[in-house]
Every structure is written in C-alpha cells, then in structure tokens.
Amino acid sequence: MPDSMKVVDLFSGVGGLSLSAVKAGFHLIGAVENDQRILDSHKANFPKVVHLAQDVSTLTGQSLSAAVHLKSDELAGLIGGPPCQGFSSIGRRNLKDNRNLLFLEFFRLVSELQPAFYLAENVPGILQPQYSKVRQSATQLVEKNYQILEPIKIAAKDFGAATTRTRVFFIGVRKDVKGFDLLVDSIEQAKSKRPTVVKDALAGLPINISENWIEYEDSWRLCDPSKFNSYVKSLNHFVDGLGEKKSINSFIKDKKISGCFGTHHTDEVTKRFQKLKPGQQDSVSKAVRLKADGFCPTLRAGTDSSKGSYQAVRPIHHIKPRVITPREAARLQGFPDWFQFHETKWHSFRQIGNSVCPIVGEKVLSAIKNSLNM
Length: 374
Hints:
Elements: E1 6-10, H1 16-23, E2 27-32, H2 36-45, E3 50-52, H3 61-67, E4 75-80, H4 101-113, E5 117-122, H5 132-142, E6 146-148, E7 152-155, E8 166-174, H6 183-189, H7 198-201, E9 221-222, H8 230-235, H9 245-254, E10 256-257, H10 267-275, H11 326-333, H12 345-353, H13 358-371
Parallel strand pairs: 1-2, 1-4, 2-3, 4-5
Antiparallel strand pairs: 5-8, 6-8, 7-8, 9-10
C-alpha cells in the first residue's frame, strides 16, 4: 500500500477531478491534457503539479512514471474523465468515434501502473448496450489484479451540488488492498443530507451584470462575502499549493472574482426572458429559466472548432432576464470563486461544461480514501 497518497489525473481538463482529489486529501503529482489552452488553465490552479500536454494514447506506464517522478508501487490512484462525446446522449453515439478508444487507454495505463485504486468518470450513455464491448474490453485489462465495482451512476444534486448533472463512475481497487467491501456503503453514506439549490449556490455573486463586460479585465467584479452561506464557504476553502496568486489575493483583499462576463441580449430576447416563469424554456433559444429553489440542468460544453464552435445553451438567471455568467456556472458546478478559467467567455464555459463536478468527485474520492484506510 503506497503511503504517499499520490494520484495522477488523465484527461484532466481544467481540473474538476484534480480539485476533488486534492480536497479529499490526496497528493496530485501529475495532470495529462492534450489541449494546451486547457492545460494552461490547469497550470494556473495547480502550479506545483507536473503538466503533460500529451495524447494519453502515446503514454506508457513507464514514460508517465518517469515524467511525474513516480517510483515503483508509489501511485495511490489513477483518476480521469476520458472523452465522453462518443457516448453522449446528445451526441451521435458513434460506435466508431475514435475518442471511445481513449476510455480503453485509461484502463491500459491502470494495468501498466498498477495503482492502489482507479476512478474513471463518464456520461450515462456509456452504459448503453451498444458500448458493452468497450466496457468489457476495459474490464478485461484490469480484472486479473483488481476488484471492480459495478459502475455507479451519480446525480450531483444528491451529493450536495446545485445541478442535476448525472455521471457514471468506474472504480476498481487492487486485490491486495483492504477495504474494498466497504466502498459501496461509504459512497452511499456520502450523499448530502440537505440539498443545495440555485439560490444557495449563487449567494453573494453580483446580480447586475453589464452587457459591456466583455473583456477579461472587465469580468473582475465585487462579490459579497457577507452573503456567503455554508455551501459557498465550503467551496472557497483554501488548500496549500493550489490557486493562482493574483486570483487568491483579489478574492481575499479586494473581494473581487473573475468570470462575470456580460452577454448582449436584444430587447426582444430580454422581454421573452422576463416573461418566463421558473423552470420554463424559451421557445427560441431553448434556454431554461432557473428555479431559485430548484437545480440547474446539466451544463453543456458546446462544440469545439472542428464541429463549428457552437456555444452550448446557457440557463437563464433566476432573477434577471439574462443568461448566467461563467462564474455563476462555476458556482453551480461546484468550483471555488478563486478558481481560474480561460480569459474568454466561450472557452470558460467549455471548460466548466466539460469538467467533473468537484463536489461529487471529492465525496467519492474521500469515500475511497476512508474505506481503503489511506
């Protein structure tokens, strides 16, 4: 059993699962992400981590260990969220999508590195019958040395987040590690006793957003810490070694946060949004007005440049007749106010929409850590 609690995050994105691991008490030593723009955002939030701008399929257990300075039997966990577009219910569910194979690459590296445990996250669509061969092939790579849980489907709202976002977690524990039999109950017990709703999640954020706040510097705005509730305070808990100095200092000293970008709406659109009741969908944009006492629907990432760079539909604020800002999206997803995203609104939303909900990730990883007595 490794005693260093070191973990490596594959397909790290902006760092939702990375943040989960650190807040759960693990030592994040490496992150792999082949999109340099996204990796730069990860670096800003995790400055002491080894970052690899590399396609996971080109890595071997040996090359990854060397890159992150990992010794034999020193890796506690391999975690990651392999690309889900090929499995997504809103996508084409293309069996031949090459990104589906990256799910297998994750398990290949598990088999080569032999961490004490692994955790892979994906969309519920991966459980569809047409992907049974993909799942079986992944299992076959690790079943010799690992005890494997049945895939666990988790709705973020059940674990204390203000979103209905539902994802599937694949978890395995090396056979020589004790505590596997406690895992399912431990994860079940991690469910939140009290739900967090939209108004809780957005407490203390600026409500009046100017459509002229387009540039990154304009997006830095005052928040109101006096309105922070237990949910927000928990999100904003600081961890040594995490965060960009500028954003942390601005948050602590000036009470300023980034990501409060404005969006221009025509008078016609504003009038339509004003008429919507909580939970209603705009007939044109298909955007849903948030319910103050409800949950945010799953935030989408939109498409990348290869698919036309389409921005995903964003929810409408529960009070104001406008779509939410990236910072509001981050709160709903479960990110701290000091956490940094890309300096543009479009890429910020993509990074947030593609991320693992940090609240869910932290609770699941904490359950693993406690069950395995790590």
